[in-house]
């Protein structure tokens, strides 16, 4: 279960983000109705597509469709100079004092009295103690003018200090906290303008988080960071990322809902150890990254906008939701096994333990998934959550009559494949079967998917449902219109599936996911930076255990051997051939385009360990993936009438 389930508030929030004007007006209207004793809506949907919901009475905001962080909500009327709204009880006291003291009236009189004189001298000559207002808790407040006030610390509030505060107003002072009435005020502009730049310890994408994880693992030997420090660093980074998720989504809201034609549900899959830091609430963040990329790529690409006849470029009509399941499934082996059985850590060899932990954590979930007891739990939980999200989305968006697609990553792709193989041909929205969806699946995108190797081990082929009928022993058919298997060539978890459909496709190159032209150099530069950084970390790690000279010599020898092998492979040439009628019939029934395997072009990462980790964790953040999803979901598809493929032959 994620840490936030057991969260206990230990300190007051230090940063707040304003709602959009549209959401603020709706919240204020219901708040006033509540104060007036009229009927009111206690729970108000906010943010883009109303992904979040505010509970007015509890003053909290939480995500609607997924389990995630809960945010405190404050009605802001008085603010600190940093733009943080004070607690509402204090704001009420300040407002009562504001009405009683009438600083706005005194400011006006000061300016009208003796126009040629000095208003500041006039204010100093009046009795300053008359303008001190005492609120609950015996705290004192001095109102500087119609927009500012000073909350005095205990023991402060003498005549001289009050006179000084009334004279300088708007400036910081010892023993007093400057407060500002209203959010639209010059004192707060600097704070608002620098809101996003305050986030100095953030990551632009998930692979950078894994870069940090590997960096910390390779520091393990030197002990330069304690485990607690590492955990705090990661938590702080993720906290700021998640805060930024809401802030950026909120800034995009212009009011009301939007037309959504396609709903994409994303199923996660990652190892047990890695999941403790990068799963559940963090997978929500990963999906938020994909959502932003879809909007960004769409807004910057006129071709996609033409598909929807969109002249504004601000609505791609796609919504993406995270479907998390792992924290709801009991993977504990301690209560189900004999006490004399060892744990995964007990059987892990000590040499190069960080890498073994990394690989073992991924494999552990896979092994547990194919244990019948856990498999049934997982499949049932995924269907339950998918149906809940779909039904809720329909309820909250009654005009939605669009299509639904599934995205499965890693083990999540295997889960999606198994579920699609179990679906009936006709969807029953009222079905009570724990393994049946309430919706038809248009597209299934597997990313970094082990489905290929899993089915080879199970001696099971894959075929189109429209031709082969329902799944049976030794054959799986998927209840979806189009199946896409997307992988990076360096991803150790990603495997091809086309040879399971037609054996001869093992001799064909997979189709390619095209790079965005403007993204090509940026992508290679980012991957190269990650490679260079982590390569140095690994060199530092092994230098204590071996003579660096011999290590380099060994690496050079290996490089020469790899070069020889590479030269041999380069003797092969690509030959373009046309699919025959039977091949085209089968493949176009699996995917309208006649291909299922889609390869992301390889970058400049030579170091397989680093490349494999970053490749396996970067699908959701990749703008090329976002562009591919946009093209495949927004375009009307007719099966291709012919298809060319590249076949590799030796000469």
From TrEMBL:
GO cellular component, one term: cytoplasm
Pfam family membership, one: DUF7131
GO molecular function: metal ion binding; phospholipase activity
SUPFAM superfamilies for the chain: alpha/beta-Hydrolases (SSF53474)
InterPro entries: AB_hydrolase_fold, DDHD_dom, PA-PLA1, PA-PLA1_DUF7131, WWE_C20G8.02
DDHD domain segment(s): 437-635
Name of protein: Phospholipase DDHD1
Organism (species): Cyberlindnera fabianii (Yeast)
């Amino acid at each position: 279960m994620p840490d936030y389930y057991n969260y206990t508030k230990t300190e007051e929030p230090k940063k707040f983000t304003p709602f959009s004007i549209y959401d603020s007006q709706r919240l204020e209207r219901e708040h006033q109705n509540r104060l007036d004793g009229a009927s009111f809506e206690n729970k108000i949907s906010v943010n883009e597509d109303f992904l979040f919901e505010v509970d007015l009475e509890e003053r909290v905001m939480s995500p609607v469709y997924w389990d995630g962080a809960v945010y405190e909500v404050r009605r802001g009327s008085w603010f600190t100079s940093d733009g943080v709204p004070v607690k509402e009880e204090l704001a009420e006291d300040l407002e009562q004092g504001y009405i009683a003291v009438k600083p706005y009236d005194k400011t006006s009189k000061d300016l009208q009295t003796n126009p040629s004189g000095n208003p500041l001298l006039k204010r100093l000559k009046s009795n300053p103690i008359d303008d001190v207002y005492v609120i609950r808790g015996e705290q004192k407040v001095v109102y500087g003018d119609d927009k500012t006030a000073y909350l005095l610390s205990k023991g402060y509030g003498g005549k001289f200090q009050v006179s000084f505060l009334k004279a300088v107003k708007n400036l910081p002072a010892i023993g007093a906290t400057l407060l500002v009435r209203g959010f639209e005020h010059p004192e707060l502009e600097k704070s608002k303008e620098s809101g996003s730049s305050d986030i100095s310890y953030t990551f632009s994408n998930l692979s950078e988080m894994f870069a940090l994880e590997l960096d910390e693992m390779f520091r393990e030997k030197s002990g330069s960071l304690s485990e607690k420090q590492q955990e705090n660093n990661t938590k702080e980074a993720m906290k700021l990322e998640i805060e930024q998720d809401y802030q950026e989504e909120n800034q995009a809201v212009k009011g009301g809902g939007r037309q959504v034609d396609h709903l994409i549900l994303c199923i996660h899959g990652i190892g047990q150890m890695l999941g403790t830091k990068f799963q559940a609430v963090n997978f929500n963040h990963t999906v938020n990254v994909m959502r932003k990329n879809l909007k960004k790529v769409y807004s910057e690409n006129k071709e996609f906008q033409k598909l929807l006849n969109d002249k504004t470029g601000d609505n791609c009509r796609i919504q993406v939701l995270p479907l998390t399941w792992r924290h709801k499934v009991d993977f504990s082996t301690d209560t189900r096994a004999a006490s004399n059985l060892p744990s995964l850590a007990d059987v892990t060899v000590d040499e190069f333990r960080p890498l073994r932990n990394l690989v073992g954590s991924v494999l552990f979930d896979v092994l547990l998934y194919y244990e019948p007891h856990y498999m049934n739990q997982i499949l049932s939980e995924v269907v339950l959550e998918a149906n809940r999200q779909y039904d809720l989305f329909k309820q909250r968006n009654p005009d939605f009559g669009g299509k639904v697609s599934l995205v499965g990553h890693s083990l999540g792709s295997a889960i999606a494949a198994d579920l699609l193989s179990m679906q009936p041909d006709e969807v029953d929205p009222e079905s009570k079967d724990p393994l049946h969806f309430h919706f038809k699946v248009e597209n299934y995108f597997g990313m970094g998917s082990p489905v290929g190797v899993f089915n080879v081990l199970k001696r099971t082929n894959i075929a189109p449902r429209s031709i082969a009928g329902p799944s049976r022993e030794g054959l799986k058919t998927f209840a979806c219109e189009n199946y896409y298997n997307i992988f990076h060539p360096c991803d150790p978890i990603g495997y091809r599936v086309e040879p399971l459909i037609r054996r001869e496709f093992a001799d064909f190159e997979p189709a390619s996911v095209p790079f965005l032209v403007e993204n090509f150099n940026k992508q290679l530069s980012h991957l190269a930076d990650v490679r260079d950084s982590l390569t140095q970390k690994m060199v530092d790690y092994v230098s204590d255990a071996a003579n660096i000279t011999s290590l380099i010599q060994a690496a050079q020898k290996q490089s020469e051997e790899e070069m020889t092998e590479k030269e041999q492979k380069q003797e092969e040439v690509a030959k373009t051939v046309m699919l025959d009628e039977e091949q085209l019939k089968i493949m176009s029934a699996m995917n309208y385009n006649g291909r299922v395997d889609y390869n992301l072009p390889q970058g400049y990462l030579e170091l397989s360990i680093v490349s494999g980790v970053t490749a396996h964790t970067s699908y959701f953040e990749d703008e090329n993936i976002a562009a591919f999803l946009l093209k495949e979901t927004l375009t009307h598809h007719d099966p291709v009438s012919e298809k060319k493929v590249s076949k590799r032959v030796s000469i």
